[in-house]
Specification:
InterPro entries: ClpP/crotonase-like_dom_sf, PDZ, PDZ_sf, Peptidase_S41A, Tail-specific_protease. α9 runs parallel beside α10. The two termini are 43 Å apart. The protein is 35% helix and 20% strand. Strands 3, 4, 5, 6, 7 and 8 form a 6-stranded antiparallel sheet that branches. The protein is of the alpha+beta class. It is globular, with a radius of gyration of 25 Å. The protein has 3 domains: 90 residues, PDZ domain (Pdz3 Domain); 207 residues, 2-enoyl-CoA Hydratase, Chain A, domain 1 (Alpha-Beta Complex), CATH 3.90.226.10; 101 residues, no CATH class. A hairpin with a 4-residue loop joins β10 and β11.
Length: 530
């Protein structure tokens, strides 16, 4: 897939909403057969489609009409009940399953060919010898370059049955002829734990970007790694995490809560309540825990934060979370498409719902970020609007509020430097990643012999690189950009992206976090300075 980085811009809008639509896997007693008995409402829709198919004056694609109808129905329910067309089901399923079958490279179209940004660590391409900067020109005899070639064609060629082989011809700068490399396809993880490393001698850090099927295993591995490295405190970073499977969030919370502590409960339209309790398996039930959230932390992220806050376990740091307390269930529509339908609400242990209102329609719902920005809430916790009617108390008497997200225990304002719209836009659109790759094309050998830790601790982005990036942008965008006000921040983005492309596996976060004010706040809390 084309190169994309973490740390998406704050103005995620619908992009965030799309991520947070993944609900829980729940058990239901009703048979689906009962749901599809004959009735006049369904007959009316079926008859209308038939009339259009057979009698309408022009030829119409009724499949598209059905899609529009389904979307229209769901839009009138709530913002998180959504339709997944057949064409999108595979990618959605892979994303939430946590892996796919392929050869394990990240790449982007460069000039008229496909350039490897890097081979995924431990994947089949890395094992076969593919390196960053390589061009994959031919796969099983089929040409993968030229003006008419699309990156989607590469995906089709490189994906295939598990354990099957693909024969590649690869161009590598400095080699006199094309390299013949055979890669055996395998399951390629879509990482949901971006980074796990020690912030201080006692404080471990774990960054989770979503809650997929594989997330708990990744998290458990990361936690055990940090405990072996001496962590007695954990910072769990859920910023910009749009959520995912409710059950995975429960498993992660279980690592921090003692046996029989309530994690959450759900309630459906019939008033049926299902409660989830912690078990005895937790690996970190005593040490300090800090959970980092922001306005894009949603759904399962809020379950984790709310469960810990309501049990007086840990400290929630950051800004008020998104406010999604609805649970979806995926239902097959019989033609390869599916619907994710809201089937219940979830409540934190004190009984609060953190779902924010959506009665004014989806647009107002998704535009609430701008309301928070304009109200000053992202800079001043006193501007957060709360209702006394939604006030709750934790067992130790701490006041918490429902009605629209998790309000942190320790507020950290938005960083107008590192989180400004221009830089996050450039990152999201890939400009920074593309520039760094093209820079490495010319200078990759100069980084040979520099260890990951040496790069993180000592490497400095030159003034010349900043100005080169500015010129790069001016040739590719209509606006003439200057970075006078954000010079140091640009250096940080460039260094973090260089680290990612050179070293992968959490290097971006290790660089970026060195100038992250929320990380600095957590370190101060850990050291007793707050």
């Amino acid at each position: 897939m084309p190169y994309k980085k973490k740390y998406l811009p704050l103005i995620l809008g619908v992009a965030v909403a799309a991520g947070i639509l993944i609900g829980a896997k729940l058990n239901f007693s009703d048979s689906t057969d009962k749901l599809f008995s004959k009735n006049s409402k369904k007959d009316k829709l079926n008859r209308l489609i038939d009339y259009i198919d057979y009698d309408y004056v022009d030829n119409i694609n009724t499949d598209s009409i059905v899609d529009v109808t389904v979307n229209g129905i769901l839009e009138n329910l709530d913002p998180h009940s959504v339709y997944i067309p057949k064409s999108e089901m595979q990618s959605v399923a892979e994303n939430m399953k946590g892996d796919f079958v392929g050869i394990g490279v990240s790449f982007y179209p460069y000039r008229d060919s496909i350039a490897v940004i890097r081979a995924i660590e431990g994947g089949p391409s890395e094992q076969a010898g593919i390196k960053g900067g390589d061009r994959i020109l031919i796969a099983d005899g089929d040409t993968l370059f030229g003006n008419k070639f699309k990156d989607g064609d590469l995906v089709k060629k490189l994906k295939g049955p598990l354990n099957s082989k693909v024969n590649l011809k690869v161009y590598r700068k400095g080699e006199p002829k094309l390299l013949n490399i055979t890669v055996k396809r395998s399951n390629i993880p879509i990482k949901s734990v971006d980074a796990a490393y020690m912030l201080t001698k006692k404080l471990g850090y774990i960054k989770v970007n979503r809650f997929a099927e594989s997330t708990y295993k990744e998290f458990d591995k990361a936690l055990k790694k940090l405990l072996k490295e001496g962590a007695t405190e954990i910072a769990l970073d859920l910023r910009d995490n749009p959520g995912g499977f409710l059950g995975i969030a429960e498993e992660i919370v279980d690592e921090f809560l003692e046996d029989e502590k309530l994690i959450l409960f759900t309630k459906n339209k019939r008033g049926t309540i299902e409660k989830s309790f912690a078990t005895s398996k937790g690996d970190f039930e005593k040490g300090k825990i800090y959970v980092l959230i922001n306005e894009n932390s949603a759904s399962a992220s809020e379950i984790v934060a709310g469960a810990l806050q309501d049990n007086d376990r840990g400290t929630i740091v950051g800004r008020r979370s998104y406010g999604k307390g609805l649970v979806q269930r995926e239902m097959d529509l019989g033609d390869g498409s599916a619907v994710r339908l809201t089937v219940s609400r979830y409540y934190t242990p004190t009984g609060r719902s953190i779902q924010r209102p959506y009665k004014n329609g989806n647009k107002d719902y998704y535009d609430e970020y701008f309301e928070r920005l304009n109200s000053g809430e992202l800079l001043d916790p006193e501007k957060i609007q709360v209702a006394d009617s939604l006030k709750y108390k934790t067992p130790k008497g701490k006041i918490v509020y429902g009605g629209g997200g998790i309000i942190p225990d320790v507020f950290v304002p938005i960083d107008s430097g590192m989180e400004n719209e221009t830089l996050t836009y450039l990152q999201r659109r890939g400009f920074i990643g593309y520039f760094v790759f093209e820079t490495l094309e010319k200078t990759r050998k100069s980084y040979t012999g520099i260890s990951r830790q040496e790069f993180i601790d000592k490497f400095e982005v030159s003034e010349a690189m900043v100005y080169a990036f500015q010129e790069y942008l001016n040739l590719r965008t209509e606006s003439k950009l200057t970075f006078v006000a954000y010079h140091d921040q640009v250096k940080q983005y460039l260094k973090a992206t260089l680290a990612d492309q050179l070293y992968g596996a959490g290097a971006f976060e290790e660089v970026f976090n060195k100038h992250d004010i929320m990380i600095e706040e957590v370190i101060d809390l850990s050291n007793g300075k707050k």
